[in-house]
Amino acid sequence: MTHVDLTTSLGSLQLSAPTLTASGCAAAGKELAQFGDVATLGAVVTKSIMMAPRSGRATPRMAETPSGMLNSIGLQGPGIESFLENDLAWLRANNVTTIVSIAGNNVDEFGELARILAKVEGVDGLEVNISCPNVESRGQVFACNPISAAQVIETVRSVWHSDAPVLAKLSPDVTDIVEIAHSVVEAGVDGVSMINTLLGMVIDVDKMKPMLGGRTGGLSGPAIRPVAVRAIYQVHAALPHLPILGMGGIRTGHDALEFIAAGASAVSIGTVVFGDPGAPWRIANELGQELQARGYNSLSEVIGLAHQN
Amino acid sequence: MKCVIRSMSPVGSYLHMVLDAPEVGEVQPGHFAAVAVGGIGSGMLLRRAFSIHKSTPGETLEIIFAAHGQGTQWLATQSTGDEIDVVAPLGKPFVLPRAAIPCVIVAGGYGAAPMELLARELRARGCRVDVILGAATQEKLFGVLDLKAVSDSVTVTTDDGTSGVRGRVTDVLADLIQKNNSQAVYACGPMPMLQAVAKVSQDNGAFSQCAVEESMACGIGVCMTCVLPVIGDDGVTRMARSCVEGPVFRGDRVRWDDVNTVPSDAFGAPRPGGH
User: Fold this and answer.
1) Which helix H or strand E contains A273, and what residues bound it?
2) Predicted confidence band at A136 (pLDDT cuts at 50, 70, 90)?
3) Lateral strand order in the sheet of A166-169
4) Domain B103-211 in the same topology as domain B2-90
5) pTM value > 0.90
6) Are B159 and B137 in contact (CB under 8 A)?
7) Which of A10, B7, B118, B225 has the fewest beta carbons under 10 Å from its own?
8) CA A210 – CA B184 distance, rounded (Å)
9) Is A144 an annotated catalytic residue?
């Protein structure tokens, strides 16, 4: 253990630890409990929840790629009703700081989900997933268009009267991520989560067809880390007061420190959890050591520091 | 947990790895282990899953693997004394019968890995145990001698006739079930074999349990990669995770024809206009 102060915040939400789980990489936290105390994480960011139960896409849903993986899960989940009854109840019972990720087929569904979640206890933040690449139509990736991104956020904001922060999850698959960030800020987000996966494809040359059942998939893991660091750096430069939850291939405390220096206030640990379920706790410890080794007393003094030089 | 490799030896086309596993708990037949590959900083992020061959709680863990892909090829280059990272035991194991009923074990290739352990458990319950081991060719058979020691009979089939009966495991399964009035069939192997075993079992009045082989990313239930359509107790088909709801499923509950698809009547299946 180090003496470095690793507490941080995302808008009004105080976090006791700097590492969170990334949406889609820890279900709703329960499965990770055999590897560590989930309540000691910064927060669990749940797998994106939708109104209705959803089967997800056909298999194969995964292909391992160099320093990463491609997935086409397609938001398999139990629907909001079951989520509240089972998953959120478990998270509350275990005192887990919880950021609920929501995904809608259309703008109204995002609003409906936010309306339902605004009325229940135990939701410490919302992450609005406007950037899942595993949808049938690219037109449904709201985060690829500043106007539709803003529409979703305005709708959520209009029914969200809690202090708990609303974060928009952004896609790196855009020409100018700063433009999208500006539009969701104007629409009223308290912060942004970045980055979601990049759209990719792997082809099986024996069967001569795309390897994934969904044909395309989202690329994640250390392979995309420099893209994430760049995106965070750009958005922090343009909007220095906007809280950023950073994610994209973080595997070590050293990686996490890059994200903090680029401008993230906290980080989500995603794909690396699949191979190392204890990673969110390990990386928090390592981050403390990395900061101490460089003579820093707190994480907060390092946020965005790479912009000074 | 960190495990030191105690030994690694070739068995036919496969490798048999024995690990020092002081932290491992009790292993039941059908449990699997997830092994990290490639070492520190490896570009291979995902663990490889292997059914556990044998284990002594607090002491050892044994796996059988074929060095087919990049990850298992790396594993094959490791030496005695090297340390690897393992998560085990994982998954739901085979359900054992309460009564002393006649059982059949069917395995394809290194799908036989967990079957010696299973045969011992069944025998300990007073069950008659008949075994069918199949493979493409003799070198790809596994566990023939070991299973002979813990069962009432072992029948071998090979596609090319290099050992035992020329043909498939299902060519001899129906007769065996009929002859011994077998009531439960336990199977592990490739998906087409499991599908055929489940059908033959059902047609002959036996209950089957199949340990499936689906590609996994996490092995612990968080990623939703390893799903297949399985009918629940309520009659509803769900995309079930083979890592935590399996890998052992009732053969009559898996919708084998629909594997690699999402059946239109599955829970949460895409509806026109959405998804």
Assistant:
1) helix A272-275
2) low
3) A19-21, A266-269, A244-246, A191-194, A166-169, A125-129, A98-102, A44-45
4) no
5) yes
6) yes
7) B7
8) 39
9) no
How is chain A split into domains, by residue range?
A: 8-55+74-204+217-307
Assign B209 to helix, strand or coil. Answer: strand
Cβ atoms A259, A195 nearer than 8 A: no
On chain A, the residues whose CB falls within 8 A of the CB of B43 are 66-67, 222
| Domain B103-211, CATH | 3.40.50.80
Residues 6+ apart with CB under 8 A from A185: A192, A239, A242
Phi, psi (rounded to 5 degrees) for B40: -65, 130
**Beta-carbon separation of B47 and A71 below 8 A:** no
Query: Mean pLDDT across the stretch B47-63?
Result: 96
The verdict on a CB contact (< 8 Å) between B225 and A275 is: no
Q: Which helix (DSSP H) or strand (DSSP E) does residue B195 occupy?
A: helix B191-203
Would you state the structure tokens that stand for residue A202, as one six-digit string?
A: 């792997």
Domain boundaries, chain B: 2-90, 103-211
What single-letter DSSP state applies at residue A157? H
Q: Which residue has the tokens 């987000």?
A: A189
- Summarised one tens digit per residue, pLDDT across range B9-39 is 999 999 999 999 999 999 999 999 999 999 9
- Checking ipTM against 0.85, whether it exceeds it is yes
Domain B2-90 adopts which CATH fold? Elongation Factor Tu (Ef-tu); domain 3 (2.40.30)
d(CA B58, CA B71): 26
pLDDT in tens, B178-219: 999 999 999 999 999 999 999 999 999 999 999 998 888 899
pLDDT in tens, B230-258: 999 999 999 999 999 999 999 999 999 99
For domain A8-55+74-204+217-307, give the CATH number: 3.20.20.70
Q: Tell me the nearest-neighbour CA distance from A306 into chain B, angstroms.
A: 25
A213 touching B, CB under 8 A? yes
Q: Can you spell out the DSSP letters for B95-142?
A: PPPSS---EEEEEEGGGGTTHHHHHHHHHHTT--EEEEEEESSGGG--
